[in-house]
From TrEMBL:
It comes from Myotis brandtii (Brandt's bat). Belongs to the short-chain dehydrogenases/reductases (SDR) family. InterPro entries: NAD(P)-bd_dom_sf, SDR_fam. GO terms for biological process: retinoid metabolic process; steroid metabolic process. SUPFAM superfamilies: NAD(P)-binding Rossmann-fold domains. This is 11-cis retinol dehydrogenase.
Length: 246
């Protein structure tokens, strides 16, 4: 009875190891990653660099770019990018093209993201949502559209870093909304670019210790949100409710 199950598990493990050991042409494989100042983006940039890929890493801050460049090999190149600024996105796209040329872009990883204010929806403003959506949803959309011709040239792939909160809205605020939106964009993009050989995938991380999940920053943002509420609203909720949210 258990023999077929055991054989199935062994076959699955063998196929998994085989896939993990597959070699790619790293000398010709250019990968552009956003949000490489810290967290997943920085780790991925260094890992791919170690494996011989031609990493093109974008950072929001000069200090983040300099720190990454010092830790990487000469194959890795950095640029500054604000995914919320269309002009910055266009400059980055032209910068990428100077490296990839006719080869095209093997991979795009849309990793840049922010948490924003996470708290009860009635406490929030339209701007609270807009700031998060601008980075987490509209940012990846803009970057993808700008680089799509280069991805089609290489029959490459798009990897969008979403979240488990893109499937389950566990809290209020723009974060869950933004990740739901990015997953919907990924699904529609997947169908639209498949005829051109471009593949689209999402990665849904859980709770990892990054700048996005820094509890002190999240609590400070919630406290600032509470402080701007009218006194009548604060009295209606009470300090005990605020403590529970924290």
């Amino acid at each position: 009875m258990w023999l077929p199950v055991l054989l199935g598990v062994l076959l699955w493990a063998a196929l998994w190891l085989l896939r993990d050991r597959q070699s790619l042409p790293p000398s010709n494989a250019f990968v552009f990653i956003t949000g490489c100042d810290s967290g997943f983006g920085r780790l991925l940039a260094l890992r791919l660099d170690q494996r011989g890929f031609r990493v093109l890493a974008s950072c929001l801050t000069p200090s983040g770019a300099e720190d990454l460049q010092r830790a990487a090999s000469s194959r890795l190149h950095t640029t500054l990018l604000d995914v919320t600024d269309p002009q910055s996105v266009q400059r980055a796209a032209k910068w990428v093209e100077t490296y990839v040329g006719e080869t095209g872009l093997f991979g795009l990883v849309n990793n840049a993201g922010v948490a924003g204010v996470i708290g009860p929806t009635p406490w929030l403003t339209r701007d609270d949502f807009h700031r998060v959506l601008n980075v987490n949803t509209l940012g990846p959309i803009g970057v993808t559209l700008a680089l799509l011709p280069l991805l089609q040239r290489a029959r490459g792939r798009v990897i969008n870093i979403t979240s488990v909160l893109g499937r389950l809205a566990a809290n209020g605020g723009g974060y869950c909304v933004s990740k739901y939106g990015l997953e919907a964009f990924s699904d529609s993009l997947r169908r639209d670019v498949a005829p051109f050989g471009v593949r689209v995938s999402i990665v849904e991380p859980g709770f990892f210790r990054t700048s996005v999940t820094n509890l002190e920053s999240l609590e400070n943002a919630l406290q600032a949100c509470w402080a701007r509420l009218p006194p009548a609203t604060q009295a209606n909720y009470g300090d005990a409710f605020l403590t529970k949210c924290e």
